[in-house]
Write a sequence for this structure.
C-alpha cells in the first residue's frame, strides 16, 4: 500500500472506525512512523500535531484501539483504520468523539457463515457440516426443507422454545445450502435491500 505522506507535510488523516459496529470513533493523524508502530504493536498510534510526538491511544486511559485492518483511499492520502476499542474513545468519556453511542452488536450469522465456509474448505472429519458437504446438494436441500417444515409445525403449535430452536436449525442449514452454491449471505441481503428500496414510496419534491 503506497501512502502519500508528502501531500500534508508528512501526515495523513486517519479515520478510526469500530470494525464491528461500523461507527466512526474519531479522527487522528499519522506520520509514517506512527503508521509503522501501529502495524507492529497492533495498537493504533497517532502523531500529535500539538505535542509534536507519537502517542498511542489508550496509553494513559487504558482504552486502547486494537487494530483490525487499515484501508487506503483512492487518492492514497487518507486512511480508514478499523479497530476494536477496549473502552470509551473520547477523552470526555463518551464512546466516540462525535458523541454517538457505540453499541457492540456482533453479527453472529456472518460469523457462522465464515465458519461454514472454513468447514467447506478444510473438511474436518469430526464435523457435521463436513458430512453435509460430502453428501452433496440434494441432502443439504432436503435438510432445509425438513427444517422449514419443523418451523411451520412449531409455529402452529405455539411452542415458543421449540420454534426458536427449529428456526436456528433452519438458518444454519440455509447457510450451508448457500455456501454449497457459492452464494454469500450479503448477496441475499442485497436482494432484500433492493426490494425494500423499490417498495418504499418516494417523497414528492
Amino acid at each position: 500500500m503506497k501512502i502519500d505522506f508528502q501531500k500534508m507535510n508528512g501526515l495523513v488523516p486517519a479515520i478510526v472506525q469500530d470494525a464491528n459496529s461500523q461507527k466512526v470513533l474519531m479522527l487522528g493523524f499519522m506520520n509514517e512512523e506512527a503508521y509503522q508502530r501501529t502495524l507492529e504493536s497492533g495498537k493504533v498510534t497517532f502523531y500529535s500535531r500539538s505535542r509534536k510526538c507519537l502517542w498511542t491511544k489508550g496509553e494513559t486511559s487504558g482504552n486502547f484501539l486494537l487494530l483490525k485492518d487499515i484501508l487506503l483511499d483512492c487518492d492514497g492520502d487518507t486512511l480508514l483504520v478499523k479497530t476494536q476499542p477496549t473502552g470509551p474513545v473520547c477523552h470526555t468519556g463518551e464512546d466516540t468523539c462525535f458523541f454517538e453511542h457505540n453499541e457492540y452488536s456482533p453479527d453472529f450469522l456472518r460469523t457462522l457463515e465464515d465458519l461454514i465456509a472454513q468447514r467447506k474448505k478444510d473438511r474436518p472429519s469430526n464435523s457435521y457440516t463436513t458430512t453435509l458437504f460430502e453428501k452433496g446438494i440434494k441432502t443439504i436441500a432436503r435438510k432445509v426443507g425438513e427444517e422449514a417444515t419443523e418451523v411451520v409445525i412449531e409455529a402452529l403449535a405455539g411452542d415458543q422454545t421449540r420454534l426458536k430452536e427449529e428456526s436456528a436449525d433452519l438458518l444454519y442449514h440455509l447457510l450451508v445450502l448457500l455456501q454449497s452454491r457459492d452464494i454469500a449471505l450479503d448477496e441475499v441481503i442485497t436482494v432484500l435491500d433492493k426490494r425494500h428500496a423499490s417498495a418504499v414510496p418516494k417523497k414528492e419534491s
Summary: Residues 137-157 form the longest helix (21 residues). The chain is about 45% helix and 20% strand.
